[in-house]
Amino acid sequence: MSSMRPYRLFISLISALILASCGSEPAKFADVDSQRLLNAAATPEEWLTYGGTYDEQRHSGLDQINADNVAQLGVAWTYDLATERGVESTPIVVDGVMYVTSAWSVVYALDAKTGKELWLYNPNVDKAVGAKACCDVVNRGVAVWKGKVYVGVIDGRLEALDAATGELAWSTITVDQSKPYTITGAPRVVKGNVLIGNGGAELGVRGYLSAYSAATGDLVWRFYTVPNPNKQPDGAISDSALKDIGNLTWGDEGAWTTDGGGGTVWDSIAYDDVNDSVIFGVGNGSPWNRDVRDTGKGDNLFLSSIVAVDAATGAYKWHFQTTPGDNWDYTATQTIILADLPIGAGGATRRVAMQAPKNGFYYLLDAATGKFISGEAFVPQNWAQGLDVNGRPIENPEARYGETPFMQNPGPLGAHNWQPMAFNPELNLAYIPAQEIPDFYASDSLFEDRIQSWNTGTNLAAGLPMDLDLATAMALRATLKGRLIAWDPITQSARWSVEHSNAWNGGVLSTAGGLVFQGRLEGEFAAYNAVTGEKLWHQNVKSGAASGPGTYEINGEQYVTITTGWGSAYALAGGSAYDQPVPPIVGKVVTFKLGATGTIPDPNLVMAPRTPKADRFGDQEMIQLGFDKYHFNCRVCHGPLAISSGVLPDLRWSPISANADVWQSIVLGGALSANGMVSFADTLSPSEAEAVRAYVIKQAHDGAALEAEVAALMAAQVATP
Ligand code: CA
User: Fold this and answer.
1) For residues 294 and 82, what is the distance between their CA atoms, to the nearest angstrom?
2) One domain, residues 157 and 265
3) Is residue 307 in a domain?
4) What is the pTM of this model?
5) Whether residue 416 sits in one domain with residue 284
6) Ligand 1 centre distance from Cα of residue 282 (Å)
7) The domain containing residue 376 runs over which residues?
């Protein structure tokens, strides 16, 4: 119990007793077994697993809230998740109790009717681990099973908690913690095993999916998605698949032999009970650039693939590779949805697996065999001319970039990222939280010389302007788009599409009430007509609303819930970079029901004054060096062009940038490593660190001037009738 403060435990026990005495609460907490999980679609009053059901459809049979009354939806309760970091969690709700996670893998149990806290569990992660997280220290949720709650911790632990008290039942380390592995995904429990993968392919790891006994925490099987550097057996269930299929697609030389090759299983896991398969999505190559990753230039299986294995043993069944020889961070980790579609002979149903991965194509596969049925682009893209009869992309030659930057859509953030997709099985429509975030790809001529956490073999400064004037800022901003697309997988075409004013919007919930719920970057949470796309209701939730919403029912009342919190990888795109600044806002669980009249507390906005903290310094050569070093070392956390998304400090306005000694003590001395800002002494010399500071100060002055220009323009617009 060392990881939970005693008074918290005391409160938890009291809470459990109070709940038990009310009579309406469960005698057993998280009393979930295979039967309940298999029947989840028939018991929509619960939300038993990350995707709602094993099919991961995120479609609820609840219809009390519908197109006729959704306008009466109001705030039932909110719960403060006490973090300014990203929140991506979908709450699990079982027998009146909600289990939800926050940043740094903290787990909360709440009364799902009132939002009252029953317990919280903090795994007390060493904050220095934050430097290993590509895309913020987020967590997408827990799994529940037979009285326990399972959480994947950002530092690579898998932990089981007592669902009644939050007390630690067991803890196991699932990764080599000397390597840059992280866990952000939600575990799933299938046949008594807890399934969990990991992330880290931007920093150099080898991916795999593991199954642990839910009862004991013992490893049952592990499936590696790429060979080990010697292409030798691991003594794992993946050995034969790699020997027969995977090894042949990798050369013998290249950075993959030292960087692990990538292929992390960081999000999507579905269970197909009809074929008794676990179907999971595999991530990008490490490094991204195949030319440096594998001199053999092969397809590099099972990167960017959908893989099916036997649910009990993990034995290989089939795979489908969405992006052979991945070169672009085109993960296939996005939501995998299973469904029965009327596409067989004479209208017979055929069981399919569907995915809309980062690469921008919607895939329909036979769930039993993995055979490609059909695929079509769901966003404008310029990397492929289409798919061949086997579903293999017909690449545009420019997409295999060299040192000249190529502006490509999708970029590494993908046409669809982790934000969950939903599927309405009555309408046979998928709802895709799609986006357009193009980016420049170029190879990095200095790859061999770089010792740094992110070493993708690509030039992370490619295509970015040294000087950001208003016209350039507006042109860059105009490239960022978001859409909610109702996609007909049978015809492979959009039925309707709602355009958003920005990219990086929320996951989707579909309900039998004929509704589709989705949050947006700017904080709007909305309900749309599932058939027409008409917006029927919206509410400002006062924070980024990116996670997958859920729904459940207690005492005859339907609730809709979403976790909010600005964060995650949007910093990579300079998300808000060309908009108004987005301040960190405390994350929340926000829960709605019909007729409720609650309010969402206003965020306590404490914004650093947006003024340069030092005079410009450095000649053009120094600024250029700072620009290059900044984008290779700092961009992925602090934002391109030194413009932060708001989650981590915007260095332009930080007082730290004013003082060369303080700057060096942090950037090289590691003075803030306890906060996750580790030392870059291995990659930056003192003069290079000072050049980065010179660039940051330049950007502060340019940024302040740009903001003044924008403010003057807006004032003029207001003044003009
Ligand atoms: Ca990636």
Assistant:
1) 44
2) yes
3) yes
4) 0.93
5) yes
6) 10
7) 38-438+479-594
Residue 189 contacts residue 37 (beta carbons within 8 Å): yes
Beta bridge partners of residue 594, listed in sequence order? 73
User: How many domains are there within the chain?
Assistant: 2
Confirm whether 272 is a catalytic residue.
Answer: no
Q: Which residues lie near ion ligand 1 (Cβ < 5 Å)?
A: 284, 329
Marked catalytic residue, from 329, 628, 650, 702: 329
- Picking from 344, 354, 238, 378, the residue whose alpha carbon sits closest to that of residue 306 is 354
CATH code, domain carrying 467: 1.10.760.10
- If one counts every other C-beta atom within 10 angstroms of the C-beta of residue 360, the result is 26
Segment 307-347, tens digit of pLDDT: 999 999 999 999 999 999 999 999 999 999 999 999 988 98
Whether 11 has a pLDDT exceeding 60, the answer reads no
Closest CA to 140 of 175, 109, 172, 99: 99
Distances (CA, A) of 327 to 293, 307, 330: 9, 19, 7
Half-sphere exposure of 219 (CA within 13 A, CB side): 15
713 in the same domain as 574: no
Q: Which of 559, 594, 629 is the last residue of a domain?
A: 594
Q: What are phi and psi of 700, to 5 degrees?
A: -65, -45
Q: State the DSSP string of 33-62.
A: -HHHHHTGGG-TT-B-STTSSTT---EE--
| Residue 194 · residue 161 · CB < 8 Å | no
Q: What is the pLDDT of residues 382-435, one digit of tens each?
A: 999 999 999 999 999 999 999 999 999 999 999 999 999 999 999 999 999 999
In a domain, residue 503? The reply is yes
The backbone torsions φ and ψ at residue 399, rounded to the nearest 5 degrees and listed phi first, read -65, -25
Report the distance separating Cα 288 and Cα 399, nearest Å.
13
Task: Kindly give the distance from the C-alpha atom of residue 259 to the centroid of ligand 1, in angstroms, as a whole number.
Answer: 14
**Distance separating alpha carbons of residues 469 and 652, to the nearest angstrom:** 16
Instruction: Tell how far the Cα of 142 is from the centroid of ligand 1, in angstroms.
Output: 22
